[in-house]
Write a structure and sequence with these properties.
With 152 residues, the chain is mainly α. It is built from six helices and no strands. Helix 2 packs parallel to helix 5. The chain starts with a helix and ends in a 5-residue tail after the last helix. The C terminus is likely disordered.
Length: 152
Amino acid sequence: MPERHADWLRQSKRDLAHARHAAEDGDYEWSCFAAQQSAEKALKSVYQRLGAAAWGHSVTNLLTNLPEPYQPSEDLVERAKALDKHYIPARYPNGFDQGAPMDYYTRPEAERSIQDAGAILQFCEHILAGLAARGGESQSRRASDEGEPSGD
């Protein structure tokens, strides 16, 4: 499988820009969802760069399941939890007893979501920059390491 972390990162940045535009247009529910998507894709870019599998849409799970040297602060985990709450309700009316998502989302929620996604994107860019400076983790090296007996 080709390594495409740069594509995931580019789309993450595009989603964050979309979140900003949606907030400016008053489409706060879409702003929150796009912010969640930005954070999710930023994290998936890190997993791609590491040659690791990343499944699911939970920003919290993606963040907290990063390998040990890349563990996030508790503040970043709290931001991820806030973003995760926008994955479904921001898009579907059945997330509420009545009305549509557009009736419930507010500018402050959109602004916070944009800030939260921006913080996670910055965290991911920092990891990716560190990997690039060190030459990254070689997928082929890791694959050969996995094939060696563990001695257990």
